[in-house]
Amino acid sequence: MTYQDTVQYNPNEPERRQINEQMMDKLTSIVRGEVILPGDAAYETARKIWSGNFDCYPAAIVRCADAEDVRIAVNFAREQGMLLSVRSGGHSIAGYSTNDGGLVIDLAHLRKMTIDPVNHTARLEPGLTWGEVSNALQPFGLAMTAGNVASVGVGGLLLGGGVGWMVRAYGLSIDRVRSVELVTADGQLLRASADENPELFWGLRGGGGNFGIATAFEVDLHPGGTVLGGIVFYEATEAERILKEYARLSVAAPDELSTQAMLALAPPAPFIPPDKQGTPIVGILVCYTGDLSEGERVVAPLRQLATPIADLIAPMPYPQIFALTEVGEVRGLQHYGRSQFFETFSDEMLHRLVEASQSVMSPETIVSLWVLGGAMSRVAPDATAFAHRDKQGMVLITHFAPLSVDAASLHARTQQVFQALMPHANGVYVGFVVDEVAQRMHDVYPPAIYDRLVALKNQYDPTNLFGLNQNIKPTASATLAGTVK
Ligand SMILES: Cc1cc2nc3c(=O)[nH]c(=O)nc-3n(C[C@H](O)[C@H](O)[C@H](O)COP(=O)(O)OP(=O)(O)OC[C@H]3O[C@@H](n4cnc5c(N)ncnc54)[C@H](O)[C@@H]3O)c2cc1C
User: Fold this and answer.
1) CATH for 121
2) 414 CB less than 6 Å from ligand 1?
3) Which of 124, 131, 313, 321 could form a disulfide with 229 if both were Cys (CB 3.0 to 4.6 A apart)?
């Protein structure tokens, strides 16, 4: 893992790696949470994150009990000049939420959730997962638009964007944020909202973890309850025709319908006929929120694109839809991914997508095509730091595999599909930028947005303490003062 392109200082400098033991004892004695050190029983589990690619050994993991612990830990990292990772749900695809020899500020125990069912608002702490949030809101008939995988953390996703099952109906997750409580690099606890620190509030919605550590989010909720959701599987013999028809129907569908198409090999699951298991398939995943009989009518054409191998679309409580992406919850696998946004789905782009995906297909491959638009596209392009409101779609090429599988081959296969689509692509989602950060930051943030983010970085984190992320590099030189107290 190389950090060189994301941090200004060199983590291999010996003086940065040496921990002042007296200070570490002091830290342990003053935080209300735990400080987990190498040799502690909890260390082996605590050092690991979702991705098996990153087998890192931090010098210490501070599992904070509250925002005050976060403040103490930030001051500590700054004063000791330590490499710093911030972790909420631990699903950083790029491995930023762990490191070798530095400090991890782990927010897994900041998991309070307060729901106001009358005003349809909630206060979420970052260590909650989206599965937990949706389960807690369900009894109130409420929900919060989020990503597609239940185990992803509130903290990372809610600072990056949040594209998921309800993106066309209720927008990105960041579109529902009313305020953020944040510990900045100088150890201050601030609040950012439309009225307080509005420029910071703009940058926090899409700018990732660059400006501080979010300790709580106040969000607007929306109706949840029962959705028409699930997946229909088709044989991939006519994949190109199916995808073209899928794209045409899904782009024109009402906002209530959010969808994805997926190219993969059929899983060895009981609902797939035995002779079709392991053969190439196209899956169409749907989530319709709203009147169910209208949903049946809208979704029907997507269930008739060919003769289905299996059709698992049915009314279900919203939290149940996360079962469709349980494969994404498995921890410790190696993972290679690349993603791209697309302004439109041209026939040529879909042809290349199918051709390239089929040429690399293996049991580890999942290529998904997400149709965007709807509520996400109606937010003003400069309202948040997320820059890609105008994109009709997104492709995510992923390979998940046990650590024993040859990494170079997974990487090459991912890259092959990515390169085939490159002539048609335009931009990338910050949450899906993996190991190509230096080259792709301007694909994440066009120059005008990037410059605005740099100005915020100069103001709130001029020494790049929060450097392990899809990094906005500060251009101002400054020092931050403060003591651990
Ligand atoms: C299996 C999988 C499925 C995914 N699916 C989706 C999806 O459907 N839609 C989508 O939009 N995204 C998706 N993502 C991307 C996801 O949104 C990002 O990886 C996100 O950063 C993960 O958040 P986390 O809190 O779990 O991760 P962590 O690893 O804990 O955090 C990732 C990074 O975010 C920053 N960060 C985290 N918490 C805080 C905080 N409280 N304050 C400041 N900075 C913080 C840090 O830089 C940290 O290194 C998926 C990722 C994975 C691995």
Assistant:
1) 3.30.465.10
2) no
3) 321
